[in-house]
Design goal:
The chain is α+β, with helices and mostly antiparallel strands. It contains 3 helices and 7 strands.
Length: 128
């Protein structure tokens, strides 16, 4: 659900942590859209890294749409992996989403995620 003010649109996915931490899934300010770090939702506890990345990218795509953007508007992504050995599987999901776009991207290994079963978190930045 998008909430719009004169120059800013906040997009909520309804995730529990949005209200706990006080953040939006995405924010559009002018022509810039910033999508918060996004993990696969509950229900993916036993999913592999590829499936979790696809789920996160689907949430990102929906948030972009609610902010008036598309995946073709994405100029940068940041990918956080708990296990660097999952890089190829997550890269495959990223390529399937951004093959024609080829945004700038960073991939970083981290020691943990908010939930112990989460394998990947992805941020996206778009210019509309």
């Amino acid at each position: 659900m998008a909430t719009k003010t004169s120059v800013r649109t906040n997009v909520s996915s309804g995730g529990a942590y949005e209200s706990i931490f006080g953040y939006s899934r995405a924010v559009r300010a002018g022509n810039d859209v910033h999508v918060s770090g996004t993990c696969a939702p509950v229900g993916h506890e036993k999913s592999d890294a590829y499936t979790q990345a696809r789920a996160a990218l689907a949430i990102i795509e929906k948030a972009l749409g609610e902010a008036g953007a598309k995946t073709t508007d994405v100029v940068r992504t940041v990918v956080y992996l708990r296990d660097i050995n999952d890089a190829e599987d997550v890269a495959r999901a990223h390529l399937e989403t951004f093959d024609k776009v080829r945004p700038a991207s960073t991939l970083v290994q981290v020691t943990s995620m908010l939930r112990p079963w989460q394998k990947v978190e992805i941020e996206a930045y778009a210019k509309v």
